[in-house]
Amino acid sequence: MVGTLGAMASTEPTLFDQVVNLCKRRSFVFPSAEIYGGFRSTYDYGPLGVLMLRNVKDAWWRSMVQLRSDVVGLDAAILSPPKVWEASGHLDNFSDPLVDCTSCKTRHRQDQLDDPDTCPSCGESGTFTEARAFNLMFKTQAGPVEGAGADVYLRPETAQGTFINFKNIIETSRKKPPFGIAQIGKSFRNEITPGNFVFRTREFEQMELEFFVPPDEADSWYEYWMNERYQWYLDLGISADQLRLRAHDDDELSHYSSGTSDVEFLFPWGWGELEGIANRGDFDLTQHAEHSGQKLEYFDQGTGERYVPHCIEPAAGATRSMMAFLMAAYDEEQVNDDTRTVLRLHPRLAPYKVAVLPLSKKDTLLPKAEEVLHSLQPHFMCDYDITQAIGKRYRRQDEIGTPYCVTIDFDTLEDNAVTVRERDSMEQQRIPVANLVAYLNEQLAL
Ligand code: GAP
After folding, report:
1. Most C-beta atoms within 10 A of its C-beta, which of 3, 54, 360, 418?
2. Chain segment 192-203, per-residue pLDDT in tens
3. Model confidence over 129-147: pLDDT tens digits?
4. Measured from the CA of 273, which atom of ligand 1 is nearest?
5. Is the CB of 159 under 6 A from ligand 1?
6. Cα distances (Å, whole numbers) of residue 201 to 44, 98, 100, 206, 318
7. Is 160 touching ligand 1 by the criterion CB < 6 Å?
8. Alpha-carbon separation of residue 41 from 30, 85, 164, 267, 402 (angstroms)
9. How far is the CA of 38 from the centre of ligand 1 (A)?
10. pTM over 0.90
């Protein structure tokens, strides 16, 4: 039985509460600076969270870069000068409309109010100021001298680092359109209403592809990437009834986009965006060409063909996707008289692939268990747990999504075989130690 969706008037914990509690209890995600009372919707990724987040990013990189010959990678700087954000339109357009309540002094996003005339904090009507645009970029200073010339911005998206490297990459990588540049990294937005755990934070990680195409191929590549990206979440275990593709209405489109569709996940509070696939046209390259005075175009020396490629951009959130994968995987089921919590994570995303569990802490078993552990560690991320009864240890691994447990018992010392238990079915098999790596590789199919 999975907890109820959403914050109903019930004492039963919601799925949201269950996942947030699990994240804290099992060291996936901690509130940042907790010993100082926490810090404004920022979060730290603990021992299991860092493994899982890395797995989400690796799965994206594998599908977007490793398995393709038309995409290369990039890791651009986080700090960038105002000129970049002038050209991209972020200095003028990347803002939310804010209103202040003159009665209770609270501040709200106008576009998120149920009733644009009534303050949700104090209930008064007609107390809002005129809306003003609040730019979401974090500004700081570079170098020892303060002043306008020292202003820099923390990037609010990785994409612009890619556009300003287009010339470098097209000149050095021997790629021609259609080809893409993939980037994973931190972005920063001074969100007015962060919340829902790691769904909306001020510091988060993105996974963005800028895919450059001949202008007349833009529509077909847009379709292609929508389907690819939707399928990626399905392949990693989110079920079709929790996932949808939704095209933006015209009034939702960003200033650069002629078409955007979101991959959305059914969060406990409703549908929420995991990723946007946008047809950005030639907006970005043209803007940066104008502002930098550099030619940002494709020129085919053989045919003499010259054009500004159009860009199709699948832009996903790594931290937000990790939360969706956790919510989709969380399950509770009745096993005999016990409630088993199990994270049915895809093996590629599970923090540990294998747990090595000696049946007892006796000196006779530990050397063999360590030998098995050391034989697995070069191949898989492993946990090693020797405390408490074996049943409890299985449950601990179920709860963090470990697909396989390998138990070393006293028979192992005689037959050099181990018991392998699968997380979802809880079925057990006896496997010779000599075949263990091959067996697990086949089962995990990473
Ligand atoms: N370059 C286009 C771009 O940045 P976006 O829709 O603003 O598009 C892409 O961001 C993805 O980044 C979103 O779909 C979401 O998954 C993630 N994201 C954006 N803002 C976020 C925030 N404040 N906290 C967590 N994830 C965020």
Report:
1. 418
2. 889 999 999 999
3. 988 888 999 999 998 887 7
4. 14
5. yes
6. 12, 18, 22, 12, 12
7. no
8. 11, 25, 31, 18, 29
9. 23
10. yes
